[in-house]
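Subgroup meeting minutes
Present: P.N., E.W., G.H.
Scribe: E.W.

1. P.N. recapped why we're keeping a running log of single-chain structure predictions: easier to compare across weeks, and new members can see raw inputs and outputs side by side.
2. G.H. added today's entry (122 aa).
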Amino acid sequence: MKIKDLLFCTTMLLLASCGQQHKAETLVEDFMDKNLKSPSNVSIIEFAKIDSTKRINDSIITNMRTVAEQSERYNQGIVYDKSGHGKTLITLRVQYRIANDTCSDTYYLDKELTKVVAFKTN
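Output recorded in log:
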């Protein structure tokens, strides 16, 4: 493979991953705006790089949703998409500030980055 071809492939992979990162961050920000009790007081500090996991099953998702329902930071009655989520989920950790408190949550997104499947407060 020529160096020019290698550079082109590397650039394309980098651009694709940056696009996915941005899409995941936007999805999480929208979810937070809709479901946090005080979204206007939130200041994002940083997003981690997206990752994937196959270790989350339906019972873990149900448990995370139940625990999230008891969170002091989020509204109760969060509505999640009812369609299947597949075996692989994309994970994204976000660190943010509400007033003087620094918080961190991990979000689990579907592979197509169209919906939040579940989240946990860290």
